[in-house]
Specification:
Radius of gyration: 15 Å
Strand order of the largest sheet: 1-2
Oligomer: single chain
Shape: globular
Number of domains: 1
Structural class: alpha+beta
Helix content: 40-55%
Order of helices and strands: HEHEHEEH
Distance between the termini: 23 Å
Strand content: 15-25%
């Protein structure tokens, strides 16, 4: 399997994890970064999926979401500001191999 296909499969697995959370909380937002470029046909590696959510940080739904993804949070929710950015960020890392193994066990 070539590197591009492996990367695409990884993105698909990650989206299968992320989308149910977005649906559960009915978040409004958009996908940006490398994955958005990929969707528009730009020949760029997809190493992450950026999802910008329009929501108040104190909203009960958002606080519940943070609890739901706690296991996969690698950069906790916090305020970030520099010369280019002024926003809140967090990072969720989905262990693709773990997801593949889980999927394989569910199939058997």
């Amino acid at each position: 399997m070539d590197g591009k296909m492996k990367r695409e499969e990884n993105v698909a697995v990650a989206l299968k994890y992320i989308i149910p959370f977005l649906k559960k909380y009915n978040f409004k937002g958009c996908i940006s970064g490398g994955f958005a470029c990929y969707l528009y046909g730009v020949n760029r590696p997809v190493d992450e999926i950026h999802i910008d959510i329009e929501l108040d940080k104190d909203d009960k739904k958002f606080k519940s979401f943070i609890e739901d993804v706690k296991e996969f949070t690698t950069y906790s929710f916090q305020y970030y500001k520099d010369k280019n950015y002024d926003h809140y960020v967090m990072e969720i890392t989905v262990n693709i191999e773990h997801m593949y193994n889980k999927k394989s066990k569910n199939v058997q």
